[in-house]
């Protein structure tokens, strides 16, 4: 077990972490705890006890928890005396319900928590994101928004260098380009526009947008204090998964998911956000995301431009490259890189994905802040801001207009999330305009 000591040198109990949710992202978070000190996973919860037990066993196998208790009831996990903080890693459409169940236990006095961390995106729309943040705020619990990319070493170190060696002497950065691309999600609910809240824009652009805001903001400052949004233009499209062959594949692999021939979720999205920064200078975030990228695996790329400096990073640069010839029989898997698409040829290897993608630093920082009774800078307020910006991009894409801030989209639900988006319709209606706000 990981441990910590107080100022008198006596042993203090590690912060007890309860994991709510048992899917792909939950396993990623559990893996990150192999490098975290001062906190341990003590409980897991899922809708089925078998899934919760599987995740608990996984945590024990990785030696990031001892006697990890599995629950199928959220209230029971929150009331567990060993649980000090919870990580909410459940599907988007359950987010409000799950957070309400947690906060009800705390507000009633049946449980005490030192922190709650909620996975991205905070909600499927602005109303849900605000509701999640309000519930936690009213319960008086310190909170964190789980946006791993702003903790990724390639971004945090590069930003530090850009601001100390570049911005200090020639002026603040003015353009951030951030992309995330892979060949499609693991689970059925991600493909469901209603359950997920949209398509790739809601799923991945939350990362790219917040990474862009992060790069354009000086260290130690919240983006909302430095960047004032001015406008956004956006495009969404169904490029790959709406084609007959791939829509049929989704139908086979994920029974019950909407028919992507008729009402797909977008598998491509780009948005250009204009802000005014703290120096009253115009700055831009260009964000692009795709579920249609077929390469070695998931590709994350970042650029930052300033008056006399620039940086770039690409996750598929990896830590090493390996080669396997066509004469080898290979089993498919994701042992080299997330969303891996091949096992032969020249392949990149990312040695420690939880560290490379920022999960290790994220969970180290947030659990440490909760243990000290402090409020993380990347809070649920950040999650609300990101959701507001994402919904503005959806609206800009649907109406094919420039959306200017401030704009009130508190009651807006994207057409994709209502299964009303029909970009492949033969009716003559331009793509994205069939259902406005």
UniProtKB/TrEMBL annotation:
Transmembrane segments: none
Entry keyword Oxidoreductase: yes
GO molecular function: nucleotide binding; oxidoreductase activity
Signal peptide: none
Domain Gfo/Idh/MocA-like oxidoreductase N-terminal: 16-140
Residues covered by the GFO/IDH/MocA-like oxidoreductase domain: 171-306
UniProt cross-references to InterPro entries, sorted A to Z: Gfo/Idh/MocA-like_OxRdtase_N, Gfo/Idh/MocA_oxidrdct_glycsds, GFO_IDH_MocA-like_dom, NAD(P)-bd_dom_sf
Annotated Pfam families: GFO_IDH_MocA, GFO_IDH_MocA_C3
Keyword ATP-binding recorded: no
Xref: SUPFAM superfamilies: Glyceraldehyde-3-phosphate dehydrogenase-like, C-terminal domain, NAD(P)-binding Rossmann-fold domains
Keywords attached to this entry: Oxidoreductase
Protein name: Dehydrogenase
Organism classification: Bacteria, Bacillati, Actinomycetota, Actinomycetes, Kitasatosporales
């Amino acid at each position: 077990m990981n441990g910590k000591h107080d100022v008198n040198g006596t042993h203090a109990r590690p912060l007890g972490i309860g994991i709510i949710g048992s899917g792909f992202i939950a396993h990623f978070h559990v893996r990150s705890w192999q490098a975290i000190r001062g906190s341990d996973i003590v409980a897991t919860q899922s809708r089925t006890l078998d899934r919760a037990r599987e995740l608990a066993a996984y945590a024990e196998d990785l030696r990031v928890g001892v006697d990890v208790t599995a629950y199928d009831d959220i209230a029971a996990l929150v009331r567990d005396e060993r649980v000090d903080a919870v990580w909410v890693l459940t599907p988007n459409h359950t987010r409000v319900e799950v957070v309400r169940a947690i906060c009800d236990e705390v507000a009633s006095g049946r449980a005490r928590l030192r922190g709650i961390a909620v996975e991205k995106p905070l909600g499927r729309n602005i109303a849900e994101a605000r509701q999640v943040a309000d519930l936690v705020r009213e319960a008086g619990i310190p909170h964190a928004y789980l946006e791993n990319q702003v903790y990724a070493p390639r971004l945090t170190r590069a930003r530090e260098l850009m601001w100390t060696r570049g911005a200090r002497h020639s002026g603040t950065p003015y353009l951030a380009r951030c992309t995330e691309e892979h060949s499609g999600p693991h689970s059925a609910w991600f493909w469901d526009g209603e359950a997920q809240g949209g398509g790739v824009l809601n799923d991945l652009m939350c990362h790219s947008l917040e990474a862009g805001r992060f790069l354009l903001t000086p260290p130690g400052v919240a983006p909302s204090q430095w960047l004032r949004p001015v406008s956004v233009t956006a495009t969404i499209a169904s490029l790959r998964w709406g084609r007959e062959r791939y829509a049929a594949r989704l139908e086979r692999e994920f029974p019950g998911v909407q028919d992507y021939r008729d009402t797909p979720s977008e598998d491509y999205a780009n948005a250009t956000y204009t802000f005014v920064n703290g120096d009253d200078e115009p700055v831009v975030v260009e964000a692009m995301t795709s579920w249609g990228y077929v390469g070695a695996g998931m590709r994350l790329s970042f650029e930052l431009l300033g008056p006399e400096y620039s940086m770039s990073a690409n996750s598929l640069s990896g830590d090493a490259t390996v080669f396997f010839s066509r004469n080898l029989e290979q089993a498919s898997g994701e042992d080299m890189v997330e969303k891996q698409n091949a096992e032969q040829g020249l392949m990149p290897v990312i040695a420690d994905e939880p560290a490379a993608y920022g999960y290790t630093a994220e969970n180290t920082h947030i659990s440490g802040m909760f243990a000290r009774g402090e409020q993380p800078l990347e809070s649920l307020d950040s999650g609300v801001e990101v959701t507001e910006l994402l919904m503005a991009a959806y609206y800009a894409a649907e109406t094919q207009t420039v959306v200017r801030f401030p704009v009130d989209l508190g009651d807006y639900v994207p057409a994709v999330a209502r299964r009303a988006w029909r970009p492949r319709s033969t009716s003559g209606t331009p793509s994205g305009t069939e259902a406005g706000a």
